[in-house]
Amino acid sequence: MNRAFGKFARKIRDINERYRTPQIEMSPRVRIALLALRLYLLFLVGLMVYKFVLLLT
Amino acid sequence: MNLASRLYYRLRKWTKAVQLYLVIAGPGLVVMIADNDAGGITTYAATGAKYGYNLIWFLLILIPVAYYVQEMTVRLGAVTKRGHAEAIFDGFGAFWGWFSLLDLMIVDWLTLVTEFIGMTAALKIFGVPPWVTVVGVVALMAVIVMNGRYWTWEKIAMLFCALNLVYVPGAFMVNPSVSDIVKEGLIPNFAGGFNGDLFFFLMANIGTTIAPWMLFFQQSSVVDKGLQEKDIPWGKFDTLFGSTLTVAVAVFIVIVTGTVLKGVDIESASQAAEQLMETNHWVGTFMAIGLFDAGLLGAICISLASSWAFGEIFGWAHSLNQKIREAPWFYTSYFFTLITAGLVVLIPGAPLVLITLFVQVIAVTLLPAALVFLILLLNDKKHMGEYCNTPLENVIGSFIVVAIVALSSLYGISVMFPDLFK
After folding, report:
1. Whole-angstrom distance, CA of residue B243 vs CA of residue B73
2. B253 neighbors B176 (Cβ within 8 angstroms)
3. Alpha-carbon gap: A20 to the closest alpha carbon of chain B (Å)
């Protein structure tokens, strides 16, 4: 079991290493798009958390 | 003689073109028809029952919308020879890659549960117990994928696509008024004024037309089929043909429920089928068969979308052209997703309605990201070369993406806070 988990963790590390550097050219347009996406997702996650709190209370 | 030889030449040219198309046809057609999944059929049935023919014009607008989004995956797959998940990992790094992959896994699994809900409900109308449906579907899908050839899988999937046309005779059998369809359906209008209810239906129709799994599925499918750059024009045609067909099927469903069930509150396609059976047995039967077929097609494609994506990232063999012993993890993840989703439907008292609503909310977190990545990847000259988006394609694509992101987000929010748009 431990060996299987260890192997899996190694695989994940390999993947993270392989894709560490984004290959797309980071032009200002790409940076703005990714920033907007981050903000949008934060907003959505915030809404979901708010809904979850509402459900609990 | 000259005319005869010219006609013969043209006929041969057309025959060859059709033959060539039949070889390349598949990814676009299958993904688009599978887009009319169990959830989609419910949305269209409810739209027809609520608004009659009045929103047909809006469905027609969705043809170019679906086409422009999906054709980008054809180019990306044919040029880079990579699936969408791998393209995101490679292009934007591990953070966005993991976000997309895990989100896709959750959305796909939940959507798969909704497909099983649709399939079991459809066959329950004919007295088939849910467990028989689940076991039968898993066995059928095992037979379809385990033959070890992408080509065979694709042609079987296309047969199920053809069964989706069952709504067409159904629409003719309810004798709709063609003049009413033209008058009410083809002229843009908002029946009863633009209010919260109508907005919800418009958003739901968009939400069922573009789903995140479709982007991942079609790109991986293009790669697994082995389409090359030279095949892109046919791949685009395949996508256009598929998007036209999928909207045509949606229009026929709206015509059926708009004619027979106008004014009835429809909560599911199986409820629509049962009510249709009371007025016309065969139309109701067609609706139930269509619902089962839609769920099956959706399940076939969605489970593959996840398995392909995981195979690409984890480096497992991940092609339908490989047998189980050659690609064990690919098939393990395929059957694990399928069987666990099927089992959820069999759990007594499982929160199936909550799951259906949750799918829409979670999909909203993945769709904008997948669409934004798609546009950015299609502008990456280094990898796409001459197949990069043209300025016009960027304007159209960006407009569609912004509109879909805005509307699908509002849809997701309206699912979480139903009173907000009332």
Report:
1. 14
2. no
3. 5
In this complex, is the C-beta atom of A42 within 8 Å of any C-beta atom belonging to chain B? no
When CB atoms are compared, the residue of B93, B314, B382 closest to A21 is: B93
Taking the C-alpha atoms of residue B279 and residue B173, their distance in angstroms, rounded to an integer, is: 11
Of B376, B382, B416, the CB nearest to A30: B376
pTM of the predicted model, to two decimals? Answer: 0.86
Residue in chain A closest to B86 (alpha carbons) equals: A19
Query: Which residues are within 8 A (CB) of A47 and not within 5 positions of it... i.e. 6 or more apart?
Result: B413, B416
| Start-to-end C-alpha separation, chain B | 70
pLDDT digits over B126-177, tens only?
A: 999 999 999 999 999 888 887 768 788 888 888 888 888 889 998 998 888 8
DSSP string, B271-283: HHHHHHHHH-HHH
Instruction: Note whether B212 and B107 are within 8 A (CB).
Output: yes
Rounded Cα distance, B206 and B4, in Å:
49
DSSP helix/strand/coil, B380: coil
| Backbone Cα Rg of chain B | 21
Q: What is the pLDDT of residue B286?
A: 92
Q: How confident is the model over B347-403, as pLDDT tens digits?
A: 887 777 677 767 766 776 677 888 889 999 999 888 888 889 899 988 988 888 888
